[in-house]
């Protein structure tokens, strides 16, 4: 199984490098950028589906871990919900250069929510790394 995953990783890396070189050599042409975006979307969907599959497989193999999974999922939903309500409470004016004026509230709401969730994730990752190092130092 590990050999198959290494081969798959190699294929993904080769395709990614080939698409990157295609975009650079073509001077950033629209078809090259579109192809790279589609590849990026494919990788994102594949990563999300893989994470969900592995989480479900882990829950099936270890039913005791379901509690932790549910708590993690609830925490993620709470963070996204709080970020949404904070973002909904104020308006950000992002210029729309192509159409003139500014983007509507729905577009900026999604952007602001995503930024707030990213901030929380980065702070959580930083605190986890620092906490792990401190815990390891006293262990």
Which tags fit this structure?
4 helices; mainly alpha; 2 domains
Briefly say what this structure is.
The chain is mostly helical. It has four helices and no strands. The chain has two domains: 1-61; 63-139.
Question: Can you walk through the features of this model?
Answer:
The protein is mainly alpha-helical and 139 residues long. It has two domains: 1-61; 63-139. It has four helices and no strands. It has helices at 2-25, 30-61, 66-88, 105-138. Helix 1 packs antiparallel against helix 2 (30-61) and helix 3 (66-88) crosses helix 4 (105-138). The longest helix is centred in the C-terminal third of the chain and has 34 residues, at 105-138. The two termini are 35 Å apart. 1% of the residues are buried.
* Structural class by sheet pairing and helices: mainly alpha
Query: Average pLDDT across residues?
Result: 89
Number of domains: 2
Low-pLDDT parts are none
Total beta strand runs: 0
Distance between the termini: 35 Å
Considering DSSP H and I runs of 4 or more, what fraction of the residues is helical? Answer: over 70%
Number of helices: 4
**Order of helix and strand elements from N to C terminus:** HHHH
Radius of gyration: 21 Å
- How much of the polypeptide forms β-strand, as a percent range? under 5%
